[in-house]
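Input (structure):
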């Protein structure tokens, strides 16, 4: 903000200097010494209030800019409106009211931001604010300074809308005036109208000729004053309470004519207060009329004795009290005194049946003499009921309305009713057992265009929602008897079609998609109501739930539950081979199928969520259980029994199942779909090494886990020693073989020979074996005995004696005896015997190999 004047003081109150802001709204002082300073605004920029605060700043070091920011508030303006009558000021005239006028505040020029940025806040001639006066006063909210004007948008009741624009200048009045106040007194002219009379008196010489009555006085008074004092005569005493436009005195001229001055908006009573001749009786009846629009004029023909009057028939709709203009009605007039229908000449024809015109009116060509008459309707307008009862009227009163020529006219109003349609729908629910179920809602729409027989307008377009009575948006709910009863439906010009569509139903039932059509047609002009009936039944929803394995085969024995969206138990059962049926689940609601306990051998399935569809068909829901099977085999794939397993949940670390394998395979129990588990062999069959743990996760397929056991093997070493020296026999070739039988006919394996160490090694699984020497070391005799070896869970046994396991494993000593020396003849027989046995063994080995 430019042009702001500031004074700079030291802490002792001494003024140092005076500065002024530039167009950027800032000012810089570079010659201040170290110290504390106080800044005071002494002159605010135009359009702003003076900021009376003191602002402090301190200079402590060179090169540091100390910034002091000062903010000023804008000066605002406020406009107050006072509403007044242009003639009476704050007092409303007639039945008008000064309350409720709507005014707008408009920009006379572009209203610009008072700062230097030039932003236009309100463009010229735009509406800035609109208010409705409560009472005769009101104020606009505070606005930025500038030129405005006030203009009436809506006049209060009984007043003419003023087009005048009241200029208001919200101009700056100095830096110490926060709000500029302006007042506007807006004056409206009251709506006015008048009344005129044609006054006649009876001519004693001729009953057919009426002459004007000069000098007749009629007084017009605002009806509210008459009501206040309970009578016209009493109100005459208090006309001083009225304004000049709230009453008047009319005196007829030589033509019997008189016209009032302009009277204010409102309802008035007119009555004859003087007659020109004492022998003429004054009019006793009161004439009441209401002025509600500008320049409205009422015209009356007043006679002492009426000999005849024109008759105008006006056809009205009974319900709306408005004229029927679409089609004509025809009627006759019955002369009660002469017992005949009135016949009049129109042109060259004489007619006794009269027809209304396009305005719904008909004026008889000729006036009727005074007397009693009846109007008989002979043809109703299209879409209406004929008025069957005669409509009586008389021509005898002294006061009548006057037509545009001032002639007396008697108006007979005929009201016709439209026939209506009624829809009765019987609503039932499957398996309700005569119990009424609430909650069904239907929407009624027009199935054809429904034409208003009164004026041809469209009551309902096809597809429109139909509201009768308290209905909204075409919605109707069945009653406590299960009945939907909709009466009062318009039938248009004789035909009408409506359609009911169910949009809501009770929980557990299928919403009907059937469109129920009701076609109405008028059969005559006397039937008041046409009733069409229909019925509809809602079927329950049906859900079949099956428990299956992964191949789709039904599983019995599962404990199942169904829960609703609020987790309330809906149904509980144990499965069999047949599906489980649930009826009456709510359409559109989501349900949860839960397996409380799976059958033995099956995993507990994940919850299945399903939503009930709006259909009468059976809705199928299947839950499939996964099966986990464990096969225990050896290296050759042969089934193994007696392996002990545990199954552990990886998340909870809980053991969920224990079992011992058999040769048929084992099914794991107590599993849950989606969980992960570890299958662990805690005890292998005899002679086998326990398999590694297997982790598996249940998804959506059966799982077969094959666990292979490797046999438990031991290494057995046979150490060759000399029977005499008890030392190992090394560096000599020898052969050992293992057999499955004691007779050593079924060879199993050759020993692994280490001549350096003098050992023969075998690898054995659990079982019983026989080891036999086939070839002895050179110089040693071959032993003919077979060594029995037993390997089991208790250990290793050689010829029934348990071997002790050492760090090198299992071993035992095998002694060999040296062959006898060749010079020793005493052993020749033994030598030859050994030779023969060796040859026999060699031949036997060859045969076995073959």
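Output (sequence):
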């Amino acid at each position: 903000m430019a042009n702001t004047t500031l004074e700079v003081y030291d802490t002792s109150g001494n003024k140092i200097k005076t500065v002024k802001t530039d167009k950027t709204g800032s000012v810089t002082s570079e010659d201040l010494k170290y110290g504390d300073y106080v800044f005071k605004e002494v002159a605010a920029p135009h359009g702003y209030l003076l900021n009376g605060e003191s602002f402090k700043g301190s200079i402590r070091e060179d090169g540091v800019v100390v910034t002091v920011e000062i903010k000023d508030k804008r000066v605002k303006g406020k406009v107050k409106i006072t509403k007044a009558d242009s003639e009476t000021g704050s007092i409303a005239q007639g039945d008008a009211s000064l309350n409720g006028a709507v005014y707008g505040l408009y920009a006379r020029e572009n209203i610009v931001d008072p700062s230097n940025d030039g932003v236009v806040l309100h463009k010229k001639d735009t509406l800035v604010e609109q208010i409705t006066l409560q009472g005769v006063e009101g104020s606009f909210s505070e606005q930025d300074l500038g030129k405005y004007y006030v203009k009436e948008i809506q006049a209060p009741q009984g007043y003419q809308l003023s087009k005048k624009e009241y200029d208001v200048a919200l101009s700056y009045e100095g830096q110490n005036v926060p709000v500029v106040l302006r007042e506007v007194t807006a004056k409206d002219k009251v709506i006015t109208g008048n009344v005129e009379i044609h006054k006649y008196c009876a001519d004693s010489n001729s009953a057919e000729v009426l002459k004007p009555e000069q000098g007749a006085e009629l007084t017009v008074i605002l009806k509210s004053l008459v009501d206040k004092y309970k009578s016209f005569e009493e109100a005459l005493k208090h006309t001083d309470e009225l304004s000049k436009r709230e009453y008047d005195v009319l005196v007829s001229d030589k033509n019997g004519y008189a016209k009032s001055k302009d009277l204010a908006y409102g309802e008035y009573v007119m009555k004859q207060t003087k007659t020109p001749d004492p022998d003429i009786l004054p009019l006793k009846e009161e004439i009441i009329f209401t002025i509600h629009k500008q320049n409205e004029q009422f015209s009356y023909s007043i006679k002492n004795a009426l000999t005849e009057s024109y008759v105008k028939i006006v056809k009205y709709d009974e319900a709306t009290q408005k004229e029927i203009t679409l089609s004509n009605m025809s009627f006759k007039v019955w002369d009660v005194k002469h017992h005949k229908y009135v016949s009049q000449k129109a042109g060259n024809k004489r007619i006794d049946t009269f027809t209304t015109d396009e305005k719904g009116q008909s004026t008889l060509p000729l006036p009727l003499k005074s007397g009693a008459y009846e109007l008989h309707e002979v043809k109703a307008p299209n879409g209406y009921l004929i008025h069957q009862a005669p409509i009586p009227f008389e021509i005898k009163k002294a006061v009548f309305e006057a037509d545009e020529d001032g002639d007396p006219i008697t108006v007979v109003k005929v009201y016709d009713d439209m026939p209506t349609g009624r829809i009765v729908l019987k609503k039932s629910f499957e398996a309700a057992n005569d119990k009424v179920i609430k909650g069904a809602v239907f929407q009624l729409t027009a199935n054809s265009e429904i034409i208003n027989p009164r004026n041809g307008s469209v009551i309902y377009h096809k597809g429109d929602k139909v509201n009768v009575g308290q209905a909204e948006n075409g919605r109707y709910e069945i009653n406590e008897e299960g009945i939907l009863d909709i009466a009062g439906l318009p039938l248009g010009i004789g035909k009408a079609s409506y359609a009911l569509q169910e949009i809501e139903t009770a929980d557990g039932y299928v919403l009907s998609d059937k469109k129920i059509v009701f076609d109405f047609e008028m059969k005559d002009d006397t039937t008041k109501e046409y009733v069409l009936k229909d019925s509809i039944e809602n079927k329950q929803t049906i859900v079949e739930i099956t428990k299956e394995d992964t191949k789709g085969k039904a599983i019995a024995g599962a404990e199942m539950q169904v829960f609703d969206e609020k987790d309330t138990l809906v149904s509980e059962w144990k499965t069999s081979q047949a599906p489980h049926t649930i009826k009456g689940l709510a359409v559109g609601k989501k349900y949860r199928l839960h397996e409380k306990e799976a059958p033995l051998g099956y995993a507990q399935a994940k919850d299945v969520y399903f939503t009930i569809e709006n259909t009468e068909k059976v809705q199928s829901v299947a839950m499939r259980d996964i099966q986990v099977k464990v096969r225990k085999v050896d290296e050759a794939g042969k089934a193994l029994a007696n392996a002990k397993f545990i199954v552990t949940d990886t998340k909870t670390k809980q053991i969920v199942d224990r079992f011992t394998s058999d040769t048929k395979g084992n099914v794991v129990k107590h599993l849950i779909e989606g969980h992960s588990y570890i299958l662990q062999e805690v005890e292998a069959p005899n002679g086998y090494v326990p398999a590694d743990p297997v982790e598996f996760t249940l998804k959506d397929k059966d799982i077969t886990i094959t666990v292979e056991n490797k046999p438990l093997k031991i290494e057995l070493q046979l150490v060759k020693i000399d029977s005499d020296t008890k030392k190992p026999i090394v560096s000599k070739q020898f052969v050992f073989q293992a057999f499955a039988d004691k007779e050593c006919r079924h060879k199993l394996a050759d020993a692994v020979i280490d001549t350096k160490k003098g050992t023969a090694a075998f690898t054995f699984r659990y079982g019983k074996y026989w080891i036999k020497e086939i070839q002895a070391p050179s110089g040693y005799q071959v032993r003919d005995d077979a060594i029995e070896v037993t390997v089991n869970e208790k250990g290793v046994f050689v010829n029934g004696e348990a071997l002790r396991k050492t760090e090198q494993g299992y071993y035992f000593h095998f002694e060999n005896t040296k062959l006898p020396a060749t010079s020793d003849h005493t052993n020749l027989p033994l030598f030859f015997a050994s030779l023969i046995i060796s040859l026999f063994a060699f031949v036997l080995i060859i045969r076995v190999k073959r």
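Notes: The chain is about 5% helix and 45% strand. Confidence is low (pLDDT under 50) at residues 203-208.
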